[in-house]
Amino acid sequence: MFLKGAFVDDKLSLLGLILNASVVVQLVMAALLLASLLSWMFILQRAAVIGHARKMLESFEERFWSGMDLSQLYREISSEGSGVGAENIFRAGFKEFSRLRQKGSPDSEAVMDGVQRAMRVALAREEEHLADHLPFLATVGSTSPYIGLFGTVWGIMNSFRDLAHVQQATLAVVAPSISEALIATAMGLFAAIPAVIAYNRYSAKTELLMVRYETFADEFSSILHRNVHSQNIG
């Protein structure tokens, strides 16, 4: 109450317009502010997750193509704990490969089908991990302008309703209501624009990483296929 009274004489200031807005418009502004804060939190989180995934992929590919024995690489990755991206795909595929070979399965195609199923599951989990919170950014980007527009329409409705109670319609009478209404639209755009940019950017980065994961899975599958085929020949 004290804060609102302190700005009552300056109704056209930004804070004054917000504090003197109708309850509906204030709720719209609060919702948009919350959406914007959550969007920025997820934007920073996705930047860290995707950046880490890209670095881990490059580090793992360097180890994988260094000529290290696959069994040794599997043991090292397993001892390191939970992996990221290609490490999880490699571990899932090699674990299934080893399990089926230890069972003495003579059918190389059955072994490779099991390996590929295991890697597809790992790929799906990695895609889910990378795309986490992106639907929220898409929702904020697509709906925030309309939520802000709703607040604007409501504020303009109030300004016209106020005109019915005055003898002379002047700009000074309707300016506060229209100004507070336009703030809702501005806040809607403020929430939507970063969310849309981040969604497009991180969706593209996620798709690029998934292509690299799938390429690695195909190459690893070919290596295992040659391995099991040579063992069957021998």
Automatic annotation (TrEMBL):
<keyword id="KW-1133">Transmembrane helix</keyword>
<dbReference type="GO" id="GO:0017038">
    <property type="term" value="P:protein import"/>
</dbReference>
<dbReference type="InterPro" id="IPR050790">
    <property type="entry name" value="ExbB/TolQ_transport"/>
</dbReference>
<comment type="function">
    <text>Part of the Tol-Pal system, which plays a role in outer membrane invagination during cell division and is important for maintaining outer membrane integrity.</text>
</comment>
<keyword id="KW-0472">Membrane</keyword>
<dbReference type="GO" id="GO:0005886">
    <property type="term" value="C:plasma membrane"/>
</dbReference>
<dbReference type="InterPro" id="IPR014163">
    <property type="entry name" value="Tol-Pal_TolQ"/>
</dbReference>
<feature type="domain" description="MotA/TolQ/ExbB proton channel">
    <location>
        <begin position="87"/>
        <end position="214"/>
    </location>
</feature>
<keyword id="KW-0812">Transmembrane</keyword>
<keyword id="KW-0131">Cell cycle</keyword>
<feature type="transmembrane region" description="Helical">
    <location>
        <begin position="12"/>
        <end position="44"/>
    </location>
</feature>
<protein>
    <recommendedName>
        <fullName>Tol-Pal system protein TolQ</fullName>
    </recommendedName>
</protein>
<dbReference type="Pfam" id="PF01618">
    <property type="entry name" value="MotA_ExbB"/>
</dbReference>
<keyword id="KW-0132">Cell division</keyword>
<feature type="transmembrane region" description="Helical">
    <location>
        <begin position="134"/>
        <end position="157"/>
    </location>
</feature>
<keyword id="KW-1003">Cell membrane</keyword>
<feature type="transmembrane region" description="Helical">
    <location>
        <begin position="177"/>
        <end position="199"/>
    </location>
</feature>
<dbReference type="GO" id="GO:0043213">
    <property type="term" value="P:bacteriocin transport"/>
</dbReference>
<dbReference type="GO" id="GO:0051301">
    <property type="term" value="P:cell division"/>
</dbReference>
<keyword id="KW-0997">Cell inner membrane</keyword>
<dbReference type="InterPro" id="IPR002898">
    <property type="entry name" value="MotA_ExbB_proton_chnl"/>
</dbReference>
<comment type="subunit">
    <text>The Tol-Pal system is composed of five core proteins: the inner membrane proteins TolA, TolQ and TolR, the periplasmic protein TolB and the outer membrane protein Pal. They form a network linking the inner and outer membranes and the peptidoglycan layer.</text>
</comment>
<comment type="similarity">
    <text>Belongs to the ExbB/TolQ family.</text>
</comment>
